[in-house]
Design a protein that fits this description.
The chain has helices at residues 23-34, 52-65, 100-109, 125-129, 133-142, 175-184, 201-213, 243-256, 276-282, 319-328, 348-358, 390-399, 421-429; strands spanning 3-5, 14-17, 41-46, 73-76, 92-95, 118-122, 145-148, 154-157, 165-169, 189-195, 219-221, 224-228, 236-239, 259-262, 286-289, 295-298, 308-311, 331-336, 362-366, 369-374, 382-385, 406-409. The chain is of the alpha/beta class and 440 residues long. The chain folds into two domains: 3-21 and 243-429, Enolpyruvate transferase domain (UDP-n-acetylglucosamine1-carboxyvinyl-transferase, Chain, Alpha-beta prism), CATH 3.65.10.10; 23-228, Alpha-beta prism (UDP-n-acetylglucosamine1-carboxyvinyl-transferase, Chain).
Length: 440
């Protein structure tokens, strides 16, 4: 486990940040490209190093497709005239690390392999312990064969669907619906009825946008999403910068009274974590949008104020950042609508509360989130247990720009979404570091 002392900023940051491509968009694009017809290719363009999750999914897709699947460049279609994904019926064991999106997307997709092909989907203990029951049960009702083993790993035996309509609760994650919708075009189409209140609905929007980019129509009306049988095709697709990673630098600007923007990520993006921008405005930062549509965050000169109530039902990945911001602000910040935080890479309610307390702040868990009582200037730094959760490392690493003495235990978790983050943080803290000094 790597220990990382977060660097204290030498002054307000002034940053034109480059961040990895969106791993949510990137993974959807890779899957749909591979579900394209054999002989076709999709050129995927993305600036920056892909996340560890994307690299892992590309490797898994290579194993089932039987051809190399790169993260960027020409991605080959791997579905034959018989409708099967790949040619081999050999058993495959796919190890996904902590990649919940990849595991869930693949759970449906590997069912499209030649009939009878067996695939075992596994990963880190925390990934295997996460809730996959809604997806397993829904696929069973569609006629797929998915079994959850005592270890939490999923065994899939490829078999055609016998039904094409299913009801699905999305009260803990929207990923089961995204998984089914993305592969449904190759399984004869599907009608998904969302039952009860749903969380992370913006990610369903990303799924439908990805389908549209590959020429697959979809319709959503009154909680029912329909995808017909279709062949996904897309000649070229550019993956936007990752809004979750961009949010880190927007928060850094707010914390240090500086300025940050991320080129190529417009405010009109459908990525859910753009939701941080109005929260920052409530806390005293200014957000201005340039002629290119890209937002720029300018931090307040006099410190942040508490955000009050912040409903993160549809943007739960922002919770650690909102907590870090709230801890450094004056006043209260309460995250609501997000009991599903407990199902993430860590129990994110518990790890966030522990992290705030570790740096001298005051935080309390609640039934659907947590509450932070900010005491500007009272934070003293301390050791933050990342607990294998990249979002904790990112959020409290950025807090260290404004609070001396923050140390991350387990910083390597950031490779899941933001490889190179520690180096980027050091560069943001001290822009002159590494520059050659001029002669007197």
């Amino acid at each position: 486990m790597a220990t990382f002392p977060a660097p204290l900023a030498t002054g307000p940051i002034d940053l034109e940040a480059a961040v990895p491509p969106s791993k949510s968009v990137h993974q959807r694009a890779l899957l749909l490209a591979v579900l394209g017809p054999r002989g076709a290719t999709t050129t995927i363009e993305a600036a920056g190093a892909p996340s560890g999750d994307v690299v892992g999914l590309a490797a898994a897709l290579s194993a089932v497709a039987g051809v190399p699947v790169p993260c960027v460049g020409e991605v080959p279609g791997a579905v034959g005239d018989d409708g099967a994904l790949g040619r081999s019926r050999d058993r495959r064991r796919l190890v996904l690390g902590m990649n919940g999106t990849g595991l869930r997307l693949l759970t449906t997709a590997v069912g499209l392999r030649p009939r009878g092909a067996r695939t075992l989907l596994t990963g880190a203990p925390r990934l295997r312990a996460r809730p996959h029951g809604a997806l397993v049960r829904a696929l069973g009702r569609l006629g797929a064969h998915v079994h959850r083993k005592p270890s939490g790993a999923l065994r899939v035996i490829a078999t055609p669907w016998t039904a094409h309509a299913v009801s699905l609760p999305l009260d803990r994650s929207s990923q089961p619906a995204s998984s089914i919708l993305l592969s449904a075009c190759r399984a004869g189409g599907v009608v998904v009825r969302v039952v009860g209140p749903a969380v992370s609905r913006g990610y369903l929007g990303l799924t439908r946008a990805a389908l549209a980019a590959f020429g697959v129509p979809s319709e959503e009306r009154d909680g029912v999403v329909t995808v017909p049988a279709a062949t996904p095709r897309c000649a070229h697709l550019r993956v936007e910068p990752d809004a979750s990673s961009a949010a880190v630098w927007w928060a850094a600007a707010a914390l240090t009274g500086g300025r940050a923007r991320v080129a190529g990520l417009p405010r009109a993006s459908a990525q859910p974590d753009l939701a941080l921008l109005p929260v920052l405005e409530r806390m005293g930062a200014r957000v201005r949008t340039g002629a290119d549509g890209v937002p720029e965050v300018v931090g307040p000169g006099g410190g942040l104020r508490g955000a009050g109530e912040v409903d993160l039902r549809d943007a739960p990945d922002l919770a650690p950042l909102v907590a870090a911001l709230g801890a450094a602000a004056e006043g209260g910040t309460r995250v609501t609508g997000a009991p599903h935080l407990r199902d993430k890479e860590s129990d994110r309610v518990a790890t966030v509360v522990a992290a705030v307390r570790a740096v001298g702040g005051e935080a309390t868990p609640t039934d659907d989130g947590f509450e932070v009582l900010g005491r500007a200037g009272a934070l003293r730094g301390g050791r933050v247990a990342v607990a294998g959760d990249h979002r904790i490392a990112l959020a409290f690493g950025v807090l260290g720009l404004a609070v001396p003495g923050v140390v991350l235990d387990g910083v390597e978790a950031v490779s899941k979404s933001y490889p190179g983050f520690p180096e980027a943080l050091a560069a943001a803290a001290d822009p002159d570091r590494g520059r050659p000094s001029s002669a007197p």
